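USER: Study each token:
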Amino acid sequence: MTQDSWLLLASMALLALAVALWLWGTSRTPLSSASAGGPGGGHFLHKGLPPGPRGLPFLGNLLDLGQDHLPSHLTRLARRYGPVYTLTCGSSTLVVLNSSDVIKEALVRKWSDFAGRPISYTGSLVSGGGRSISLGDYSEEWRVQRRLVHQTLQRYSHSSLQALVRRQALALREVLIGYNGRAVDLAEDFTVAASNVITTLTFEKEYGKESEELQQLHSCLNNIVSLWGSPWISALDSFPLLRKLPNRPFSRLLKEVARRDDIIGRHIKEYKLRDNQSEDSITSSLLKGIEQSIGSEDGVRLTDTHLHMATVDLLIGGTETTAAWLSWTLAFLLHRPQVQTQVYEEMCGVLEGRYPQYSDRPRLPVLGAVISEVLRLRPVAPLAVPHRALRDSSIAGYFIPKDTVIIPNLFGAHHDPSVWSEPNSFRPERFLEGGGGRARDLLAFGGGARLCLGETVARTELFLFTAYLLRDFLFLPGGEGAGLPDLEGEASVVLKVKSYKVIAVPRPLETDLAVGPPNQQSGDTAL
């Protein structure tokens, strides 16, 4: 457990003792009877729910939820309790889903039962009162907002997205060439490249690595993502009494959210004041959509807060996750360098010297297999975002009461030994013909009504950035005597690889750098 978790546990134990003493002093009913929940004791609380590890009085399974690498710990619990099990934390009941079948049952086949978001004190504070697409609860207002943003993203995915990603991939190439064979950590360069795709689509702004504005924005977003995974933050939802106590991580989170809102607010204000607003920006389309929502027949009126929070979702979802995935890809390839050679030789044979386009995916199965395998091994949002049961329902035959919190453990589903042979091994060949891997068992982008809004953007970025990197460079471990990257990672809301250095060695290539016309194919996103 982390030091924060132990400190939280100590605070919770003291709080539990105080509550117990208060109950003992004010009630004639013995504490043992009061806490038993009537006939059947604690068993009555879980009647009909899946089994799970026994929790502590008052605290529930706080020790389990405070583990360092929570996705791995929840996956280990699944080996003992099965693909569906129950945890408790204070007043909250959580059901953890650990296989692709049960996740699909809840998120896809019964999506209308489980499309809600947990009622969250902290979630409301960071999402403009629940007006973000990622954290907002399921409602007609949420559906209208999501539909507007989704349609806007789809429109740009068919027009300017590919050219924009290719431009950023070529800019990244120049950065790597400029390192002249030095061992460097490329995480920040990946962040800049992914960020520029989103900021250009959104605000028509590109940044250099040294940009103070970009550094402030990503420092703020990184801090929010990191703090959001702290047990000191999540405990505030399950143990409301803790809100009365000093909480430094929570105070820091509020400061970062205020800083985020100031930065995003300035961007939107500056955009509105422009004389030459482009028709090709996401912000322009969203502003029009907000205007059109006034007086609409469905009675839903979107506001600038919806625009603000949609922008936050795009920046976090389109930057932090893509950059983390690219770092994971190189880390795994350093462990199996022959795979780099296979991808490079495939591109040389198929593309005849030119850079790839998104429409080349069917002709580059080895590259596609690498992308699928990294998505399997390290889904960058390993526990997705918790769902909430909107009504009484069932999963795998177990009764799930209304308001139960549902945690889709994508990491666990992707490491299920009943589905994946050698689940912990990096084996892209499993996704080639005859390899036994099935793309339909991948859930990296979630599913159902809460399917990742930016899936099309993400898949385009992953394919083109990876293809350009492996076409132009051979990647080697960073320096003499340098070890290979650690593959366990650091798990918070986003699963990130630990910092490592790499040497990018330019490949000998033909001089034809033609990229061809922008892809005009359909929006099919299958790898």
Summary: The chain has one domain: 3-506.
